[in-house]
Amino acid sequence: MRDLSPSGLSLPATSRRTLLRGMGGAALLGAGIPLLSACGGSGSSADPKTVSLGSNSSDAVPKKAFAEIYAAFTKKSGIKVDVNTKDHNTFQEQINSYLQGTPDDVFTWFAGYRMQFFASKKLATPIDDVWQKIGGNFPEAMKKLSKGEDGKYYFVPLYTYPWAVFYRKSVFAQHGYEVPATWDDFVALCKRMQKDGLVPIAFGDKDAWPAMGTFDQINFRTNGYDFHVELMAGKASWTDAKVRKVFDHWTEILPYHQEGAVGRTWQDAAQTLVAKKAGMYLLGTFVGQQFTDKADLDDLDFFAFPEIDPQFGQDTVEAPTDGFMLSKAPKNRAGAVKLLEYLGTPEAEEIYLKADSSVVAASTKADTSSYTALQKKSYEMISGAKSLTQFMDRDSRPDFTSTVMQPALQNFIRNPKNIDGILSSIDRQKKTIFASS
Questions:
Q1: Closest Cα partner for 256 from 220, 286, 281, 219?
Q2: For 161, phi and psi rounded to 5 degrees?
Q3: Among 4, 35, 373, 389, which residue has the least CB neighbours within 10 Å?
Q4: pTM score
């Protein structure tokens, strides 16, 4: 998200993107912009009793949950975790230059293409020795997600969660709404909600990543998992009629999205669902973090994004997996390995899940007896999926998604009539970026 609130460290988004595009997009890895930096200076991690950790978990709930894990690790090992937390969006935008500089020993990151990308650039250290200890805690799917293209392990998964359409059960009951199974049902429900005075679809894209989730859902429902993977890997053309069909569908429901989305954070959009001003919200299950009242949270439910083409049905589920990686030259490798081994235990996952009930454990050995109804439903959705995706900015090159797709999708939201020009621009830049190694 993706997660997914400026820290004051970054260049303004527009000037930064202009700079990167001017460098040819693919030059992002070599930009060397000194924005994120390791915590505590160069000497902090040299202490054998201290491990530095760069974290993107800036929101209150996950930040607290991770703090409890690190405290438990310190109590057990005697090794302190020196945490360097940066705003989630800033961390993602600046990860390239951060990893090329003097990063923390361990850093939070994502499974999939984004992990493999940094591993292939030698910006992360293999952790096969860690997996010799933790391998029995995870299913094959998680093991696969944790490997680089060279077959070595680079990632320790902690939790996963699905993207879905969220709604308030009481609102649906009050108006007699039914969960839509097909696209036509979904559009009809949007029209009905609008007539009833609700914002049909809550939407906030100020941080530029939520819209990517909407694209993903419509794309794999319209064109299937295989085409979606090809498109994310730069192998399919963005001017393909299949892609245009995705935006035609999106254009159909765009009038039912919350207005002014580009100026609204996902958290603010979530509050309209909390306040029963919006009928639905497409997001990851972390939306539950915004439901601070238990009665409101108990009223929250979700359904899979509706079927568009029967041949693809609802087979694909977007289920990002978050976890940890070891940086290229950790100052305290021995301590970092011990931390990663602990993070791969059911104990660590259970500590996290007690504080954050919006996600489910990546390990099959974690205790799930205390799962909420939403967690059980999340687990069923993920385990029942034919195919799993990670999320656009995790399933494709980071330079492509941050410098091309994020501004392009915001341009579409502002002016959907210019879609042909937007797609031509995306495809042009895609060719340049993916042509580089």
A1: 281
A2: -165, 150
A3: 373
A4: 0.75
